[in-house]
Specification:
membrane, 4-stranded antiparallel sheet, 6-stranded mixed sheet, ABC transporter transmembrane region fold, 3 domains, transport, transmembrane helix
């Protein structure tokens, strides 16, 4: 065709021979496409043409200006920022890119702050396994259980609509699945509780073994403690193993129920007179029937997991309702700063029990300790000596009666106000890792001069490791004596402070107390009888009752005196020990 007219119509070969315009078109197409071979045609006057082939050995030259199609252009090497700038120059891309950069930077900074806070506070974490379950696991499993329920029941509803005869199977299947779930819950909850209790036994035994490692090695009891630890681990692993077995038991039976529903649905759709257009709905029903297995099993499993995790809520609820101590500070009932001024202690019909249903430990003790007096408390093991001291510090609240110090009932003031005004040297001193100054004055209440006076009175090591393991027991007691010297309380309590130390250290402590606390009320729970011989009075307790209360020498000379019997037993035991050492 040329200028809108048909010049010729023939086969390809005939057109090549007879039509010059067609020959020019073919040659132009060969040259433009860059073919490696081209053909030359004879003139139109020749009836028989001869095609001559010519091989092109050289590379193609750059196409001339009249070529219709050019070779595709491409960049080479690094193009720099130019394409990025071109991209950002359209449709406010610079603004969007800036906002995205700022927001992402804020996200990264917030994430770093969160991780920094987590690293800084990890040592002060109060999170237990129960709290972790309540905060994360329980909420996740509850949400998953609700979602799985909706998916499972929607599958059953769809199967019931598309193949209504399957409802005959679906209704019993729901009943049996709920029955299996309830049967499983009864065992799974108990297994979860057993797992929690046995885990705490492992933790406490491990902590005890670490603290008493030196004593365990000294007595050669490593194998016994190791065997006990293995038994505790086995006891903890058994509930976990049985819990996993119960999960598999439940899953197997649920899969059988789902297979019955799917088979019944397929059979019903086969028997129902469905039209040709129902093939899509049949495929939809079968697809949901296959998914029912997954949804139903996940629903029951998440429900079971949530039911197991709810045990943590029960444990936390139990801890929340444990009776707590009284208020630290009772507003409007704070004692004066110089209280107690004289140190007079009045005990009126004091009765104490540790639990509401437990028997009385102290049974109506009444006595008066004058201010500045030194009183020793003696009695056999379990008589109630330590309980009386605990009631004085309100470690246990009185069931009946009262304790009055300088005219003030200690039950009416806050615990901090009471305990901060009393001094004590306990039988088992507590030390903290750190410096001597920190252990002497952890609240930074005293000056360096006062601390130095206490330090020179009792020679201490320079550093203190955790629990004071680099100190001997006598040095720890001297350290507690230093705390008491700093506090200068009008009432000082010694709770068998010298029971586990040597006689030399006992002599140092007693001499320092007589010198430094001459005007203070000193209450001594005695393990060694000579400790209370120089006291103004001795309070003898037996079976939670006040047996006698008088001067030491009067009690010794009194017939059938409990204190006299304790003195005789002490000296008899000391004499036998001395004879054994000499032998």
């Amino acid at each position: 065709m040329a200028r809108g007219k048909i010049l010729d119509a023939a086969t390809y070969d005939k057109l090549l021979d007879s039509t010059p315009e067609f020959q020019d078109l073919v040659n132009a197409n060969k040259n433009t496409a860059g073919s490696e071979r081209h053909f030359e045609f004879a003139s139109s006057t020749r009836h028989e043409g001869e095609i001559k082939k010519t091989n092109v050995g050289k590379q193609l030259k750059t196409p001339s200006g009249d070529q219709l199609i050019k070779k595709e252009e491409r960049e080479t090497g690094d193009t720099g920022l130019k394409p990025y700038l071109q991209y950002l120059s359209h449709n406010k891309s610079v603004l969007y890119f800036f906002l995205q950069f700022v927001l992402h930077m804020l996200f990264v900074i917030a994430q770093m702050i969160q991780n920094y806070w987590f690293a800084a506070e990890i040592q002060n974490s109060l999170v237990s396994s129960d709290m972790s379950i309540i905060d994360t696991e329980l909420a996740f499993h509850l949400s998953k259980a609700v979602g799985s329920d909706l998916n499972a029941y929607s599958c059953l509803l769809l199967l019931g609509i598309l193949s209504w005869p399957v409802l005959i199977v679906i209704v019993p299947m729901i009943y049996f699945s709920l029955l299996l779930q309830r049967y499983y819950f009864a065992s799974a909850k108990e297994l979860m509780r057993m797992n929690g209790t046995t885990k705490s036994s492992i933790a406490s035994h491990l902590a005890e073994s670490i603290v008493g490692a030196t004593t365990i090695r000294a007595f050669g009891q490593e194998n016994g403690f190791f065997s006990k630890h293995l038994k505790l681990i086995d006891a903890n692993a058994c509930p976990y193993f049985h819990s996993s077995s119960a999960d598999e038991w439940l899953v197997q039976r649920l899969e059988i129920l789902c297979a019955i529903v799917l088979s019944s649905s397929a059979l019903a759709m086969t028997l129902l007179p469905l039209g040709p257009s129902a093939s899509g709905f049949i495929g939809m029903a079968l697809s949901y029937g296959l998914s029912l297995n997954i949804f139903l099993i996940s629903s029951v499993q998440y429900h079971c997991s949530a039911s197991n995790f709810i045990v943590s809520v029960e444990r936390l609820e139990q801890y929340m309702h444990i009776p707590s101590e009284a208020k630290t500070i009772a507003q409007g009932r704070q004692p004066a700063d110089n209280w107690p001024a004289t140190g007079k202690v009045e005990i009126n019909n004091l009765k104490v029990r540790y639990r509401p249903d437990a028997p009385l430990v102290l049974r109506g003790i009444s006595c008066v300790i004058e201010g500045g007096h030194k009183v020793g408390i003696v009695g056999r093991t379990g008589s109630g000596k330590t309980t009386l001291i605990g009631a004085l510090f309100r470690l246990v609240e009185p069931t009946e009666g009262e304790i009055i110090i300088d005219g003030l009932n200690i039950s009416n003031i806050g615990l901090h106000d009471l305990r901060s005004h009393l001094g004590i040297i306990p039988q088992d001193p507590t030390l903290f890792g750190g410096t001597v100054r920190y252990n002497l004055d952890p609240l930074s209440q005293y000056t360096d001069h006062e601390i130095w006076e206490s330090y020179t009175t009792n020679k201490f090591p320079i550093a203190v490791v955790e629990d004071g393991s680099n100190w001997s027991l006598g040095q720890r007691q001297l350290f507690c004596l230093g705390r008491a010297l700093l506090k200068r309380s009008r009432i000082l309590v010694l709770d068998e402070a010298t029971a586990s130390i040597d006689n030399a250290t006992d002599s140092i402590i007693q001499h320092t107390i007589r010198r430094e606390f001459a005007d203070s009320t000193v209450i001594t729970v005695a393990h060694r009888i000579p400790t209370v011989m120089d006291c103004n009075a001795v309070l003898a307790i037996g079976d939670g009752r006040l047996v006698e209360y008088d001067e030491p020498m009067k009690l010794i000379n009194k017939e059938c005196s409990l204190f006299g019997q304790l003195v005789k037993e002490y000296w008899s035991h000391s004499a036998n020990s001395s004879i054994g050492v000499d032998d």
